[in-house]
Amino acid sequence: xxxxxxxxxxxxxxxxxxxxxxxxxxxxxxxxxxxxxxxxxxxxxxxxxxxxxxxxxxxxxxxxxxxxxxxxxxxxxxxxxxxxxxxxxxxxxxxxxxxxxxxxxxxxxxxxxxxxxxxxxxxxxxxxxxxxxxxxxxxxxxxxxxxxxxxxxxxxxxxxxxxxxxxxxxxxxxxxxxxxxxxxxxxxxxxxxxxxxxxxxxxxxxxxxxxxxxxxxxxxxxxxxxxxxxx
Length: 231
Hints:
- The protein is α/β, with parallel strands linked by helices.
- The chain is 41% helix and 23% strand.
- The longest helix is centred in the C-terminal third of the chain and has 19 residues, at 212-230.
- It is elongated and about 55 Å long.
């Protein structure tokens, strides 16, 4: 089902009631076109997600990016009435402590303007550093949030040449190449040859469009296996 958005302005808060799928393509572009201008027009945006049937990795990344955009302009993004599928994804990926979520629309509207702190179950950063590169801002936002919440030190870039520089300077244990970068075989080979001791992890071609919880869980398991193999 295509994503439909019903905005309602309630004082200085805008509520967007979402219905359908939050996925890569026109659905995310539609959401961004609605929310981004609001960063300069209102103090708070509330996304009502009770009727969202599916969210992919790019969709979660889009929510993380929109949260950062609104906060950079002094506004806030709150989620409310999570559908079972959205709540499951955010629980599995441990992102309930990143994206402010509320049981009701009224709670989300009344919520304090203070930026929430990470929940107490956040994992302390490990010594494992990971560099992520992909052409998609949203995929990188998802990877960054997911991996940081799992305790990893994460650096991201959309440019393969910058990824190679980061690898040489920061000496990560793992480099993750997203689907949007893998067509550039020359860049992949430069990463392989430029840092032969670093483990290169290529994400599946459907990572950006896969159900975000399953994709995230599979990735974390792959990373743990790579780390265990080196020890």
